Amino acid sequence: MLPTPSTSHVNSDRIYEPAEDSFLLLDTISSPRESAFLAQRFAHNPEVPLVLEVGTGSGVVLAFITAHALAILGRTDTLSIGVDINAFACTATSQTVLRACRETTPAMYLGCLSADLNSCLRHGIADIVVFNPPYVPTVELPRLPTGEDSTLSAELDGFEEDSRLLSLSYSGGKDGMEVIDRLLDELPLILNKERGVAYILLCKQNKPESVVQRIKDWGRGWSVEAVGQSGKTGGWEKLQILRICRTGIDEAFAKRPLLN
Predict the structure, then answer these.
(1) Is-contact 93 82, C-beta < 8 A?
(2) Of all helices (H) and strands (E), which one includes residue 166?
(3) Which H or E run includes 111?
(4) Burial class (CB in 10 A: 0-12, 13-18, 19+), 92
(5) Count of other CB atoms within 10 angstroms of residue 129
(6) Which of the residue ranges 85-89, 95-99, 148-152 would you say has the lowest mean pLDDT?
(7) 228-257 confidence digits (pLDDT tens)
(8) How far apart, in whole angstroms, are the C-alpha atoms of residue 254 and residue 232?
(9) 25 CB contacts (<8 Å, ≥6 apart)?
(10) pTM summary value
Protein backbone atom coordinates (compact mmCIF):
# COMPACT_ATOMS: atom_id res chain seq x y z
CA MET A 1 0.00 0.00 0.00
CA LEU A 2 1.35 3.40 -0.98
CA PRO A 3 1.66 5.89 1.91
CA THR A 4 -0.86 8.72 2.10
CA PRO A 5 0.68 12.21 2.18
CA SER A 6 0.44 14.09 5.46
CA THR A 7 -1.93 17.05 5.66
CA SER A 8 -1.33 17.91 9.31
CA HIS A 9 -0.30 21.44 8.29
CA VAL A 10 -3.64 22.19 6.57
CA ASN A 11 -6.03 24.71 8.16
CA SER A 12 -9.32 22.80 8.08
CA ASP A 13 -11.30 25.93 8.97
CA ARG A 14 -10.92 27.23 5.41
CA ILE A 15 -9.61 24.27 3.41
CA TYR A 16 -11.35 20.95 2.78
CA GLU A 17 -9.48 18.26 4.66
CA PRO A 18 -9.15 14.70 3.32
CA ALA A 19 -12.25 12.59 3.87
CA GLU A 20 -13.87 9.45 2.46
CA ASP A 21 -14.08 10.93 -1.04
CA SER A 22 -10.38 11.84 -1.07
CA PHE A 23 -9.33 8.38 0.07
CA LEU A 24 -11.64 6.70 -2.46
CA LEU A 25 -9.79 8.58 -5.20
CA LEU A 26 -6.42 7.49 -3.82
CA ASP A 27 -7.51 3.85 -3.55
CA THR A 28 -9.07 3.83 -7.01
CA ILE A 29 -6.24 5.48 -8.93
CA SER A 30 -3.59 3.31 -7.23
CA SER A 31 -5.57 0.08 -7.54
CA PRO A 32 -3.91 -2.68 -9.58
CA ARG A 33 -6.55 -2.32 -12.28
CA GLU A 34 -6.22 1.43 -12.75
CA SER A 35 -2.46 1.48 -12.35
CA ALA A 36 -2.22 -1.14 -15.09
CA PHE A 37 -4.60 0.88 -17.28
CA LEU A 38 -2.63 4.10 -16.79
CA ALA A 39 0.75 2.44 -17.21
CA GLN A 40 -0.36 0.80 -20.46
CA ARG A 41 -1.59 4.15 -21.70
CA PHE A 42 1.34 6.32 -20.62
CA ALA A 43 4.41 4.33 -19.53
CA HIS A 44 5.94 3.95 -23.00
CA ASN A 45 4.55 7.01 -24.73
CA PRO A 46 7.40 9.32 -25.81
CA GLU A 47 5.46 12.42 -24.74
CA VAL A 48 5.69 13.41 -21.08
CA PRO A 49 2.22 13.19 -19.50
CA LEU A 50 0.72 16.02 -17.47
CA VAL A 51 -1.56 15.34 -14.51
CA LEU A 52 -4.04 18.09 -13.60
CA GLU A 53 -6.10 18.12 -10.44
CA VAL A 54 -9.00 20.57 -10.49
CA GLY A 55 -10.00 21.67 -6.99
CA THR A 56 -7.00 20.43 -5.03
CA GLY A 57 -8.14 21.37 -1.53
CA SER A 58 -5.50 20.04 0.86
CA GLY A 59 -3.47 18.68 -2.05
CA VAL A 60 -3.53 15.11 -0.78
CA VAL A 61 -4.61 13.60 -4.12
CA LEU A 62 -2.18 15.55 -6.27
CA ALA A 63 0.62 14.88 -3.79
CA PHE A 64 -0.17 11.17 -3.83
CA ILE A 65 -0.02 10.94 -7.62
CA THR A 66 3.09 13.12 -7.85
CA ALA A 67 4.99 11.22 -5.17
CA HIS A 68 4.00 7.80 -6.52
CA ALA A 69 4.12 8.47 -10.26
CA LEU A 70 6.30 5.44 -10.91
CA ALA A 71 3.89 3.04 -9.19
CA ILE A 72 0.77 4.60 -10.70
CA LEU A 73 1.88 5.67 -14.19
CA GLY A 74 4.94 3.53 -14.70
CA ARG A 75 7.26 6.52 -15.11
CA THR A 76 8.66 9.44 -13.12
CA ASP A 77 9.18 11.90 -15.98
CA THR A 78 5.66 13.16 -15.39
CA LEU A 79 4.39 16.69 -14.79
CA SER A 80 1.73 17.59 -12.24
CA ILE A 81 -0.21 20.80 -11.68
CA GLY A 82 -3.19 21.86 -9.58
CA VAL A 83 -5.94 24.47 -9.74
CA ASP A 84 -8.14 25.72 -6.92
CA ILE A 85 -10.37 28.78 -6.57
CA ASN A 86 -9.27 29.09 -2.92
CA ALA A 87 -5.83 30.70 -2.73
CA PHE A 88 -5.25 29.21 0.73
CA ALA A 89 -5.83 25.77 -0.76
CA CYS A 90 -3.21 26.48 -3.43
CA THR A 91 -0.63 27.26 -0.76
CA ALA A 92 -1.57 24.17 1.23
CA THR A 93 -1.40 22.00 -1.89
CA SER A 94 2.16 23.07 -2.64
CA GLN A 95 3.18 22.35 0.95
CA THR A 96 1.54 18.91 0.83
CA VAL A 97 3.13 17.96 -2.48
CA LEU A 98 6.62 19.11 -1.56
CA ARG A 99 6.50 17.30 1.78
CA ALA A 100 5.27 14.10 0.15
CA CYS A 101 8.06 14.15 -2.42
CA ARG A 102 10.97 14.52 -0.01
CA GLU A 103 11.77 10.82 0.15
CA THR A 104 10.55 9.57 -3.23
CA THR A 105 11.53 9.85 -6.86
CA PRO A 106 8.55 11.97 -7.80
CA ALA A 107 7.08 13.52 -10.86
CA MET A 108 7.88 17.19 -11.48
CA TYR A 109 5.40 19.41 -9.64
CA LEU A 110 4.68 22.66 -11.52
CA GLY A 111 2.62 24.40 -8.84
CA CYS A 112 -0.99 25.18 -7.99
CA LEU A 113 -2.84 28.02 -9.69
CA SER A 114 -5.63 30.05 -8.11
CA ALA A 115 -8.35 30.02 -10.76
CA ASP A 116 -11.91 28.99 -11.55
CA LEU A 117 -11.76 25.42 -12.89
CA ASN A 118 -9.70 25.33 -16.11
CA SER A 119 -10.06 29.02 -16.99
CA CYS A 120 -6.30 29.62 -16.82
CA LEU A 121 -5.20 26.63 -18.90
CA ARG A 122 -4.78 26.16 -22.63
CA HIS A 123 -6.84 23.57 -24.46
CA GLY A 124 -5.59 20.02 -24.69
CA ILE A 125 -2.96 20.47 -22.00
CA ALA A 126 -3.98 17.65 -19.64
CA ASP A 127 -3.36 13.93 -20.14
CA ILE A 128 -4.98 13.04 -16.82
CA VAL A 129 -7.60 15.15 -15.03
CA VAL A 130 -8.68 14.37 -11.47
CA PHE A 131 -11.72 16.15 -10.06
CA ASN A 132 -13.19 15.77 -6.58
CA PRO A 133 -15.89 18.40 -7.12
CA PRO A 134 -18.22 20.30 -4.82
CA TYR A 135 -20.95 17.67 -5.16
CA VAL A 136 -23.24 18.31 -2.19
CA PRO A 137 -26.72 19.56 -3.25
CA THR A 138 -27.25 23.10 -1.91
CA VAL A 139 -29.78 25.87 -2.46
CA GLU A 140 -27.17 28.10 -4.07
CA LEU A 141 -23.48 28.33 -4.83
CA PRO A 142 -21.16 30.48 -2.71
CA ARG A 143 -19.74 33.65 -4.20
CA LEU A 144 -16.45 33.07 -5.99
CA PRO A 145 -13.38 35.02 -4.82
CA THR A 146 -12.59 38.21 -6.75
CA GLY A 147 -9.83 40.78 -6.82
CA GLU A 148 -11.76 42.78 -4.21
CA ASP A 149 -11.62 40.00 -1.64
CA SER A 150 -8.69 41.46 0.29
CA THR A 151 -10.80 44.50 1.10
CA LEU A 152 -13.96 42.49 1.70
CA SER A 153 -12.20 40.05 4.01
CA ALA A 154 -11.24 42.90 6.30
CA GLU A 155 -14.93 43.75 6.67
CA LEU A 156 -16.04 40.19 7.47
CA ASP A 157 -15.41 38.38 10.71
CA GLY A 158 -13.00 35.47 10.49
CA PHE A 159 -15.65 32.78 10.94
CA GLU A 160 -17.85 34.12 8.15
CA GLU A 161 -14.98 34.36 5.67
CA ASP A 162 -13.58 30.94 6.60
CA SER A 163 -17.04 29.40 6.20
CA ARG A 164 -17.42 30.90 2.73
CA LEU A 165 -14.04 29.62 1.63
CA LEU A 166 -14.75 26.14 2.97
CA SER A 167 -18.18 26.04 1.30
CA LEU A 168 -16.51 26.46 -2.09
CA SER A 169 -15.19 22.92 -1.69
CA TYR A 170 -18.54 21.18 -1.13
CA SER A 171 -21.48 23.36 -2.27
CA GLY A 172 -22.66 22.01 -5.61
CA GLY A 173 -25.93 23.87 -6.15
CA LYS A 174 -28.96 22.10 -7.65
CA ASP A 175 -28.53 18.31 -7.45
CA GLY A 176 -24.89 19.07 -6.56
CA MET A 177 -24.25 19.32 -10.32
CA GLU A 178 -23.76 23.00 -11.14
CA VAL A 179 -19.97 22.98 -10.90
CA ILE A 180 -19.70 19.43 -12.25
CA ASP A 181 -21.76 20.42 -15.30
CA ARG A 182 -19.37 23.26 -16.05
CA LEU A 183 -16.34 20.98 -15.85
CA LEU A 184 -18.01 18.33 -18.04
CA ASP A 185 -18.75 20.98 -20.66
CA GLU A 186 -15.06 21.88 -20.73
CA LEU A 187 -13.62 18.37 -20.45
CA PRO A 188 -13.33 17.74 -24.22
CA LEU A 189 -11.29 20.95 -24.43
CA ILE A 190 -9.07 20.25 -21.41
CA LEU A 191 -8.06 16.68 -22.25
CA ASN A 192 -5.38 15.69 -24.70
CA LYS A 193 -7.16 14.75 -27.92
CA GLU A 194 -5.47 11.37 -28.23
CA ARG A 195 -4.90 9.95 -24.77
CA GLY A 196 -6.81 12.11 -22.27
CA VAL A 197 -8.27 10.44 -19.18
CA ALA A 198 -10.40 11.95 -16.41
CA TYR A 199 -11.39 10.64 -13.00
CA ILE A 200 -14.47 12.40 -11.62
CA LEU A 201 -16.09 11.67 -8.27
CA LEU A 202 -19.87 11.81 -7.90
CA CYS A 203 -22.40 11.12 -5.16
CA LYS A 204 -25.74 9.36 -5.51
CA GLN A 205 -27.77 12.58 -5.75
CA ASN A 206 -25.62 13.73 -8.69
CA LYS A 207 -27.36 10.93 -10.66
CA PRO A 208 -24.23 9.22 -11.98
CA GLU A 209 -26.26 7.18 -14.45
CA SER A 210 -27.33 10.41 -16.18
CA VAL A 211 -23.72 11.57 -16.33
CA VAL A 212 -22.71 8.24 -17.88
CA GLN A 213 -25.38 8.62 -20.57
CA ARG A 214 -24.29 12.20 -21.17
CA ILE A 215 -20.74 11.04 -21.90
CA LYS A 216 -21.99 8.25 -24.15
CA ASP A 217 -23.98 10.84 -26.09
CA TRP A 218 -20.69 12.55 -26.97
CA GLY A 219 -20.37 9.78 -29.52
CA ARG A 220 -17.46 7.79 -30.86
CA GLY A 221 -14.08 8.58 -29.44
CA TRP A 222 -15.18 8.47 -25.79
CA SER A 223 -15.63 5.79 -23.16
CA VAL A 224 -16.97 6.02 -19.61
CA GLU A 225 -16.89 3.48 -16.83
CA ALA A 226 -17.45 3.38 -13.07
CA VAL A 227 -14.11 2.27 -11.63
CA GLY A 228 -14.56 2.95 -7.91
CA GLN A 229 -17.29 3.30 -5.31
CA SER A 230 -17.72 3.65 -1.59
CA GLY A 231 -19.08 0.90 0.59
CA LYS A 232 -22.18 2.83 1.62
CA THR A 233 -25.45 1.69 0.08
CA GLY A 234 -27.97 4.31 1.15
CA GLY A 235 -28.40 8.07 0.97
CA TRP A 236 -26.58 10.60 -1.16
CA GLU A 237 -23.32 9.77 0.59
CA LYS A 238 -22.71 6.79 -1.67
CA LEU A 239 -19.77 7.79 -3.84
CA GLN A 240 -18.71 6.68 -7.28
CA ILE A 241 -15.73 7.46 -9.48
CA LEU A 242 -16.14 7.60 -13.24
CA ARG A 243 -13.24 7.14 -15.59
CA ILE A 244 -13.86 9.14 -18.77
CA CYS A 245 -11.34 8.76 -21.53
CA ARG A 246 -10.56 9.30 -25.15
CA THR A 247 -10.62 6.11 -27.17
CA GLY A 248 -8.90 5.17 -30.38
CA ILE A 249 -5.41 5.54 -28.91
CA ASP A 250 -2.95 3.57 -30.99
CA GLU A 251 -2.12 0.81 -28.54
CA ALA A 252 0.84 -0.38 -30.58
CA PHE A 253 2.28 3.12 -30.43
CA ALA A 254 1.51 3.43 -26.74
CA LYS A 255 3.50 0.25 -26.02
CA ARG A 256 6.42 1.10 -28.28
CA PRO A 257 9.68 1.49 -26.33
CA LEU A 258 11.18 4.95 -26.04
CA LEU A 259 14.47 3.78 -27.53
CA ASN A 260 15.00 1.39 -30.42
Answers:
(1) yes
(2) helix 158-167
(3) strand 108-114
(4) buried
(5) 24
(6) 148-152
(7) 998 665 455 689 999 999 996 544 334 433
(8) 37
(9) 61, 130, 132, 199, 201, 228, 241
(10) 0.89
